[in-house]
Amino acid sequence: MSDDNAQAKPNPLRSLWPDVKTDTGRQEAAKAGAISMVYVALSYILATGLIIFKGEDLIGGFADTEELVGTIILNVLAILMACLLAWLIWKRRSLVATGIGLVWIAAEVAMKLAMAPGRGTIIAILALLFSINAMRSAVAAKRKVEAA
Questions:
Q1: Is residue 87 part of a domain?
Q2: How close are the terminal C-alpha atoms of the chain, in Å?
Q3: Where are the transmembrane segments (predicted)?
Q4: Is residue 5 domain-resident?
């Protein structure tokens, strides 16, 4: 009896690794992947804000105005791309978008670990976990479609 009661309690860590065999689990995993891309977009929004208002990013200043403007343009493009990927992951469960998002998040985590260890690393690793969940969801959804 005690084993049944222990299993009846919800696992608070289940949301970190949802069961993608169920529709609800696939939805949760896809939502987590979309959240990870929103995290990327927000980090680029923050970086762009620093550039606009302080004239420098987290690494330092810019050599000239062209470099500053170029960096702002690239950041805006990255923000738009991250938002598009978030939408594709959440609504379409696109395997390609999920793969791009996973690679992007992995690169972000690697850069955080290399350039600023300890600053936002835990959040970045959670975003990586969420992105892995999105990949699991997209693969499971593709298998479900192929099986039908």
A1: yes
A2: 39
A3: 34-53, 68-88, 95-115, 121-139
A4: no
